[in-house]
Amino acid sequence: MLHGYGANWTASTPSPAISIVGAYTPINTVFVDCNLNSDGFTAEYFWNGGTQSINYINDCDSTYGYGYGDGINISFAPSSYFGWGAGCWLASSCSTSSSIGAVLGVQGVRLTAQENSGPSVAADGSNNLWYQASRWVRGGGWPVGFTSSDPSGVCGTDLLVHIDETPPSLAFEPVNPSDPQAVVADTSDGQSGVASGQIEMRPAAGGSWQSLATEFDGPHLLARFDDATLAPGKWLVQATSCDNAGNCAWTPRLRGVRIDRRRR
């Protein structure tokens, strides 16, 4: 081999977002020509901004002229590559005295890398449920496919965009004999939560529903009617409860209220 020639092994990072920051060779895994320098060769590990020489240390095999060389166990500033190699730099021409014709052999190396960016996620299609993040939606037909990528690879994915297709539960509480003008309806929703509700009345014979002033205290819809303002006869009461996704429920049974006379 002529002066200035040699061979290298190099590992490069697959992305600018990944850097090599350390290298380690297990014990007794680096072999070199026992007469490395006198045969005209130099060898080294190298990375961006640094090198470490490799020399013959000990335990030369007299048959093959091959023995242990310097390993490496080092951390360094982020580099886009790491490698090792040997070249003819100490003579005008070089020839190994090893009977197996070998100059340098690194039998194992462990590289430590770091990544400076997280995964990216892109929804597949413009009408994707992904774009409804941080809100509740209802109905079917929402595509939910997405593509995720990362410089070091994606180990797993999980989709948490909530779908609520169930209306709230809703039922009247029994009439309170001590306060018969009060109307109380129990309501709850285990997914998106109850957003609002309304209690209404109308004559049993027909007519338009009349909204009562309704409060929502969390588990109840609360309203009152004034029988002094209502015509005598039978009236019907119904309640409506809607959740944050827009699903609404009506009381399965209408409550009957009889107004016997007007209050004076």
In a few lines, what is going on in this structure?
The chain has 264 residues and is mostly beta strands.
If you had to describe this structure to a student in words, what would you say it looks like?
The structure is a single chain. The chain contains no helices and 22 strands. The protein has 264 residues and is mainly beta. The chain has 3 domains: 6-115, no CATH class; 118-163, no CATH class; 169-259, Immunoglobulin-like, CATH 2.60.40.10. The strands form 6 sheets. Strands 16, 17, 20, 21 and 22 form a 5-stranded antiparallel β-sheet that branches. Strands 1-9-4-5 form a 4-stranded antiparallel β-sheet, with no helix packed on it. A hairpin with a 3-residue loop joins strand 18 and strand 19 (220-224). The mean pLDDT is 90.
Question: Could you outline the blueprint of secondary structure elements for this entry?
Answer:
Blueprint: E1 6-12, E2 18-24, E3 30-33, E4 41-47, E5 50-54, E6 56-61, E7 66-69, E8 73-79, E9 81-88, E10 104-106, E11 110-115, E12 120-123, E13 146-149, E14 169-172, E15 182-188, E16 194-203, E17 210-212, E18 214-216, E19 220-224, E20 233-243, E21 248-250, E22 255-259
Antiparallel strand pairs: 1-9, 2-8, 2-11, 3-7, 3-10, 4-5, 4-9, 6-7, 12-13, 14-15, 15-19, 16-17, 16-20, 18-19, 20-21, 20-22
